[in-house]
Specification:
Radius of gyration: 16 Å
Number of helices: 6
Order of helices and strands: EHHHEEHEHEH
Strand content: 15-25%
Helix content: 25-40%
Distance between the termini: 42 Å
Shape: globular
CATH architecture: 3-Layer(aba) Sandwich
Structural class: alpha+beta
Oligomer: single chain
Amino acid sequence: MLNYRKATEIDLTTIIKMIADDELGRKRENFQTPLPKEYLIAFKKISLDPNQELIVVEDKNAEIIGTLQLSFIQYLTYKGGIRAQIEAVRIRKDKRGLGIGKEMFKWAIKKAQEKGAHLLQLTSDKKRPKAIKFYEDLGFEASHEGMKIHFK
């Protein structure tokens, strides 16, 4: 059985360790102990925003084995609809392949529906074909072409 709860400051090192623990994460994150102050600043902003939910997932032993962030975006289209966005979904390396990700997405879909969102969206780096296949198997569709501009 999995337990979902809002992350606390104490969880931050574990969260960043999971986010940095893959090929792309190692290139863009700066996991070290103690964590760089930017992570704590970002965590505090997320925690204060009622439209953000940074979640940790615990196993039956209360060990953190996963994390995700849900954002709820109010907009005018879709008759003033709410769009949910899921980001930074990570599972601890030793727990991957056990169906935990699927359970986390079921939970996130239910949470988004409870908040009145009319859709749940995500982006995935094209360099993650296994992740993209996983999302498609969950029912996500590549309905739009996404674009980004990175600022230095």
